[in-house]
Amino acid sequence: MDYQTVIIIGGGLSAMVLADQLATTHQVTVLMKADISENNSILAQGGIAAALSPTDCWQDHMADTLQAGYYFANEDAVKVLTKEGVSAVCDLIKKGFQFDSTNGALIFGQEGAHHKRRILHVGGDQTGHRLFSFFYNRLEGSVQLKQEHKLIDLVIEQSRCIGVRCQTANDEDEYFFADHIVLATGGCGSLYQLTSNNPTITGDGLAIAYRAGVELMDLEFIQFHPTMLVKDGRNYGLISEAVRGEGARLLDEEGTLLMEGIHPLKDLAPRDIVARTVYDHYLANKQVYLDISMIERFDVKFPTINKLCQKAKIDMQEGALPIAPGAHFMIGGIKTDLVGRTSIDRLYAIGEVACNGIHGANRLASNSLLEALVFPNRLASVISESTLTKRIDPVISTTNSVTYQSIDLPSLNTLQKQMTTYAGIVRDPFGLLTLKDWLESYPIHCPLDQIQPKQRERANQLLSAWLIVTSALRRTESRGAHWRVDYPNHSKDWDFVHTLRSKYRDKHPHNKTCAMTSRNK
Ligand code: SIN
Fold it and tell me: pLDDT tens digits, residue range 81-90?
């Protein structure tokens, strides 16, 4: 039997779920940029939102998702997520995955902007880690997992994606070809100074897709999480919204409740509102605390967060955790349909790098682990039902000599500072334009294979930053996670308008030519 071949680029939960679905019927190769432990999924604390409680239904979950997303979401996509999410989680339980329960009854947690308790969790705050391990362990050698393979390029022939070029740990190029190519490369949290993301999450998939002409969408919407544990300027990691779901309250330095009078849901208001409120204090150099003193057995309910607090040498008896907002989730991404197809034939996207509109302008908490179950399952069906078409032979240059551009790129610290200051939680036109000019002073549109291997990640970060900034400049309104001081209100003109980007739309991207130097490979 001639197996169809599939390449999945990325090492998070979506990649594992898809690989699991296709492992016995397809020849699957998973390419990860670093090692297996370097991904965002294992950091996900809160849980997985699904309408499984007897008092809940997918329609209510859908309503909360649409409301939290400021009615900007694709309703069909949200229906798929919330409705199929119920069966996806039930299937997971049938496969043997165990969520936290008491006397056989599932325990449902609470998070921001959910009007019902519907967050399933495992080991308190270890849901992402346990889910990832569950799927990873099921693969058991049935797919090829290759670590330390950084994506450089998509190989597109006759308008079809037929393969990828990767950079190995030795900075060698390696090509992989397949019938189906799936991007699951995650978001871009490392563009900001404070983030909940793993440092390897550098916007690679986004930048590489853009260079290949793939259509992108909604990149101005970057979600900030209000509660990162930050002490003496050091970021210790995320404090889940589930902690506020158990009663924790945000306090200012005087002990006043921060969210009182701001929103009816107070500390469990939509994430963008809480993040902006904390940010206002942060800007005024005022410390904000999360009061957890009312939560009994905190160490049992939230073992991961408890460890972070121990590392930060927090006095848990005082129960006041110093917090600050940090970049958390890229809402926009590679534009896909409801099964993960992109604008290029045989190229698909799933997980955080994909955007099918489910999150609207502000993602509802714990919907992304659900997304990582539902949409890879859908894509697996599409790939399984597809017929084997004639393979296209790649036209690969076999030259031994590679010409690299010798370029100066900014340090990561400088880039993060610029993004945090000018394209962060609150944006103004002067800042966005300053940042755009600064980014365009670098050769951000250089093909990656012409850039020295050690500089490629930074080049991807710069291009991702440019995509975010140019999208933020284009959307002249405030909505959810995109907030502009010069346009502080929603505008009906933007109700149904998405900012789309692809190199074909951006016909004349500014670029700085750079000096050429060559070296032999
Ligand atoms: C959290 O645990 O607060 C994060 C959950 C999410 O971002 O979905």
Answer: 999 999 999 9
